[in-house]
Amino acid sequence: MKPKVIIIGGNLRINGISTFNMMIFENLRDEFEFIFINTAPGESHLREEIISKGGRIYDVIVDGNGPYRSLKQAKMIREIVRTEKPAAVHSHYFSNNGIYLKQAFLEGVQTRISQCNNAPLKNQMSLGKRLAVKSSRKMVRKYATLRIGCSESAREFLYGDEGKVVCFPIDYKMYREPCGDCYQKYGLDPNKRYFLFSGRLTSVKNVSFIIDVFKDLPDECVLMVMGYGPEEENLKKQVKDNGQRNVLFFDKKTPVKELLSVSQAMLLPSLHEGIPFISVQAQACGVKCLLSDYITKESQMGLTTFLPLEKDAWKAAILALASDDYAHEPQYDRRFDSKFLISYFRGIYEGLSSDQWIERGKEYTLGSNRFYRDKDLCQDCFRIAHEMGNIRGTFHYALGFFEGNGTPMNKNRADELVAPIIEQVEFRAAKGDPDFILILGDMYSFGLGKEQDFEKALSLYHQAADLGSLEAMCDLGYMYLVGQGTELNKETSAYWYKKSADLGHLHSIRDIGQSYMKGEGVPVDYVEACKYFKLASDRNYSHGTTDLAYCYLNGLGVERDLKKAEELYLLALKQDRERAMRDIFANKIDARKLIGGEGIEFLDVDEITEISDQNTFDGCLCVSSDIKTIDPGCFYSSYVKKIFVEKDNQQFKAVGGVLFNKDKSVLIRYPPTNPDATYSLPSSVKIIGPYAFQNCRNLEEIRLNEGLEAIEDSAFDDCKKLRSIDFPESLKRIGPWAFHACDMIERFIVPANTEQIGEYAFGSCMSLTDIEVDTGNRSYCSVEGNLYNKNKTSLIQYSIGKYQSAFVIPDSVVDVGFRAFSDATYLEELDCGQVMSFPEKCMYYCESLKKITYRKGAVFGDKALDHTSPDLEKVVIG
What we know:
The structure is a single chain. By secondary structure, the protein is an alpha/beta fold. Helices cover 36% and strands 17% of the residues. Helix 23 packs across helix 24 (506-518). The strands form 10 sheets. Strands 3-2-1-4-5-6-7 form a 7-stranded parallel β-sheet, with helices on both faces. A 7-stranded mixed β-sheet has the order 19-20-21-23-25-27-29, with no helix packed on it.
């Protein structure tokens, strides 16, 4: 029998609370029996849907207001609780949460959740309501096992300094799917600009204000109002009385995503809110939001502007957005991701302890009978255990930051988390607790909280294994397999893998299968390998599933069966899509046809010349063992955020998601959408290859290593956010276009040993005001921040971000470099001195250039003076 959950709140109507509850219901109804309590008369929009999907409903309708109504409702709710015996009661009424949860407490309900979804101002509540809230606060403190608010203001309103924030979630995937032609569907004019209000039509939402704003806007700006509520007829009358043709009303059941797809912006002029659910939905669609400044700023995801409730301010903002033709990127914020909320409430309804949250996290690490692998949820479970004060939870949470597993890598954060628990870990380990002996071993193995010491880690793993730790046995299997902290010994490795596998440790089940497959420490036995792979697959470990698929693919231990292999690969894609795609690419299977249901076909590839769905999944480029060449220029407009290389590849290696040659002497490609703002080159790097960092969209600072000798062609081309770079003394070569269009860099300092600077290496850097050259350099020099050859006969690059309006080329200069002045923003007058030849695009896009003086007979190359001032004065002398 499924455990029961009673939900109180939302009253089965279409509103934010009901949307929240229905999302939980939809995702967890196979695991829990949901019972909804409706406390209000009138239409219940969701009743039919809930019942059709297996939910049950009690109507607790009491006439009147005030304490009498609340007490009578509480009495009825207690009878329901007594009858149903739920595992959890989840109440959403801030003024009645206390009295409702008291009934759950009196009936012995284990989990009692108080949720507050808004924070009304004191002057917006009647005296009776204020007294009810005061009473509710006291009872909530006494009877709730969990206190949450949908925003900081809501949390503080009901719980003061206590409680936690759990935001209203959305299914991000749904908001990224196309909607079709909604202009045609709703009879809208594509030439007009549409703005959306969606929500309850109540006085608090202040819709009359925004209707009045649109009264003063042209008819090309149209307000769409979608919702229902007590103000609906008044608002329609207001529009009619105003004679407005630019306000449209939509049925409350209209899919909000479809209206957002035609909206310039979502408008919410509310007098108060929690975190408005609709603003999260809008930003997830890439739609801008205008919100009143009474609303909490917590909804900001990058596309929201907060405005005072002044008509002129809203009118100006709407008109500005009406002329905005830019398609904004959909925004993501994990606070609002429904998968985290569903996982959280699954555990809350189950009543998980902190140790159980850790075990849940470990289930998500590899997969389990119940769950598929999910690195994000794994880290989230460890976070919850950490916040509950569990030391083991803290360590695993820190390890996620250390490895970048389920969260961006942040070793400083990992160290901060671990530092306070080291003494406690050591104390518990000294007492012989195998869990803490294991953690101490991990600290030495990873170098987290301790200096890395594999021999100490090995000793600790042996202690924990002798006390029955299956994880420690698995760790020993790995250390003996690769010779880490000990002599390599594959027989001992297989012993530990098999011992922990036969005791049920999932990781080792797959590992001993690999040992039998490869004959590592045990005789080659494909049948035995398949047995273990199947055990791992049956527990949703995707590596076991793809290993078993490989056996069917090649007839190892089983008859060759491409259909069975196909079934297994498709199963692995459900269990862990990232790992499964990696194995599909590694085996040179046509991923497009496999996923499209066309069976297994093979690709004959040994090079990567384009980024596609045949080598990349979810931003990860997978380089199989057969790949011999990779074109670094093919990454330019891709969304690659990390690169993975199979360990058997003889040409390439990936470290931290960055592509190198095998010995790491050449950095070949940094992923263009890697989210990190800074990067430090390994000390082994001698060459940054062509296009290696081209169009890296988030990179702000690069730390180059001493020993670096060359930065090749277009290596940092179009790194728009790159602000800081210091060249090492060892640098000998800077290739053509190496730093082209690095618009944030203000200064380059060329070291003494640099022998070669390629054409346009520092070109189109819009903020560049200074190029300095070490006085000991034998090939180059600088004068007033501009780059010349050593004897100053050639002006190679003018620093185009200089604010000076006039420049005279020195008389020693006889030629200037390709596009030497191109894009010089502030240059108005140029005296060309003795130069007689100007190459292609030399002053291209010097849009402020009004006067140029040059000698008679001077020759200008193609487009040399294109896009200068239309009034350009040409003064010829001599």
